[in-house]
Amino acid sequence: MLDLKQIGASEFRQLKQAQDRGQLSHAYLLLSSDEVEALNTAYWLICYVNCTGEKKPDGTCPACRRILAGNHPDVFLIDTEENKQSIAIDQIRPLKQELAKSPLEGDRRYFVINHAQKLTLPAANALLNLLEEPAAPVVTFLIANNGGQILPTIKSRTQIINFSQQAASSKDRLLLANGMSQEEVDQVKSSQEVDQAVKFFYQELREHDSLAIVSAHQLAGLVKKQKQGTKAWEKYVWILLKKWGEKDLEKGDCQEAANFLADLMRVDQMWQSNVGFLNNLDYLALKWQQ
């Protein structure tokens, strides 16, 4: 059974207000460094909607107890399976069958996908198809600690709630939402020189400029000479490149921007597998010369 001692109070109020106004979205991406908090918040909202007690949600009525125990027929939880590091497409496919069914006890069903940043690419694409079913009476909650590992096309179809970041700057919110810790964010405060180098590098990539290979080495050298947190600075570069790609995607430059973001996700996975930072920049530079 879930332990609901820790929920995001302000985030729950936001969801509750949307429900009370009849404006609950069909899909939410709950981003938090504490995924347990985000998961609890999603379940507490589901309890609020289905509670049969006087003070909703009471957590003790039959509906709440079944929801929290994972035994409610209208609530489905997808999570990583034991001894596996990712969520596979075979775990997402059954949800499509559930879309064809009517809710058994309420007016909608609820899909909760925990650790959504661990979706494989086929699983993410299958989920994307589900999110494009507007007629289905379903609310989907994606729980993740790293928005940078969620496909941009999925994010564009969800309402994003960042936990406990209301007081943070827009830059800090961007970095925290993309998986950086507060300590890492603090390490990249003075970033103007790196920001400019990343912008130039991105522009050269998009223009298929052969000078991008030179800029890659200059950018790697600039990151290396930072006084602290080399890994944090490397992560920061990937986030900035992703931000530039998403901006072009929003402007309607869909095909090239989507291709770039796909390559960037591949590079990020290589980097997390200990492929060197410069090697990954070189890979992008050479790939986009073609």
UniProtKB/TrEMBL annotation:
<dbReference type="GO" id="GO:0006261">
    <property type="term" value="P:DNA-templated DNA replication"/>
</dbReference>
<dbReference type="InterPro" id="IPR050238">
    <property type="entry name" value="DNA_Rep/Repair_Clamp_Loader"/>
</dbReference>
<dbReference type="InterPro" id="IPR027417">
    <property type="entry name" value="P-loop_NTPase"/>
</dbReference>
<protein>
    <recommendedName>
        <fullName>DNA polymerase III subunit delta</fullName>
    </recommendedName>
</protein>
<dbReference type="Pfam" id="PF13177">
    <property type="entry name" value="DNA_pol3_delta2"/>
</dbReference>
